[in-house]
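Try this one yourself first.
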């Protein structure tokens, strides 16, 4: 399985991984801000955008192996949402490939459990799964709206998100199903902290999918952008870029 990538800029390597149903275009505004300071590789997840899809690629380790094959030999990895799950697993499997890990609006576990209330109710994702079968376009549009719900400048951010999202081929339905299964089923809370990899987390203070209360339950450095929702790199692009610069300078 071959994953589509986009490489631009010069400087230390920075890898960007998008979230469920998205594609590499959503990163473009941030890429344009940072590409004079970093060599940026943006990877499209399996079956998303122009990346190919293998029906046997359903586990987190399958997705992680595909991304590792497409990634630079060593980089700062920044994983947004579902991409953050993959980055966490990759750091455990291949810590030598990491200068640092940045989890953006992501979590080790996306659904609530008796001892883990800082997540989504399982029913939210299950509803997306059932609606996906009936109308892929409508389901993804609703998911886009949920990502900016409650955030500052939500209308402008949603328009930007839609514009960038529609610039690339739509994700394949089997890949969307598999991605939802990962969000529903993966729990990395007991994953050992990767040796030698500095951990950083950037959360949105108004995120409806990854509650900011999660901040005190994450290892490493955590920053919360108060007015941001689930896509802080779009709604608060300059602030995100500044935080990434700051963390990269201390790697």
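Now uncover the answer:
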């Amino acid at each position: 399985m071959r994953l589509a990538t986009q490489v631009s800029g010069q400087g230390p390597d920075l890898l960007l991984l998008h979230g469920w149903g998205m594609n590499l275009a959503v990163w473009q505004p941030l890429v344009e801000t940072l590409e004079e300071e970093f060599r940026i590789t943006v990877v499209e997840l399996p079956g998303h955008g122009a990346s190919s899809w293998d029906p046997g690629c359903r586990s987190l380790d399958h997705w992680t192996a595909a991304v590792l094959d497409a990634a630079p030999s060593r980089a700062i990895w920044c994983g947004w949402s579902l991409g953050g799950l993959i980055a966490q697993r990759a750091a455990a499997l291949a810590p030598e490939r990491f200068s640092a890990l940045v989890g953006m609006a992501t979590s080790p576990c996306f659904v609530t459990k008796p001892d883990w209330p800082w997540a989504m109710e399982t029913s939210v994702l299950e509803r997306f799964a059932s609606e996906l079968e009936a109308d892929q376009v409508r389901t993804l549009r609703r998911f886009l709206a949920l990502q900016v719900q409650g955030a500052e400048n939500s209308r402008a951010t949603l328009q930007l998100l839609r514009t960038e999202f529609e610039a690339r081929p739509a994700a394949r339905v089997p890949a969307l199903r598999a991605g939802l299964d990962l969000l529903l089923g993966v729990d990395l809370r007991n994953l050992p902290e990767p040796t030698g990899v500095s951990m950083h987390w950037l959360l949105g203070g108004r995120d409806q999918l990854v509650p900011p209360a999660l901040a005190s339950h994450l290892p490493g450095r955590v920053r919360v952008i108060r007015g941001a929702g689930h896509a802080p790199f779009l709604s608060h692009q300059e602030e995100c870029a500044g935080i990434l610069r700051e963390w990269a300078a201390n790697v």
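Discussion: Strands lie at 5-9, 13-17, 39-43, 75-80, 98-104, 198-204, 221-225. The two ends are 32 Å apart (CA to CA).
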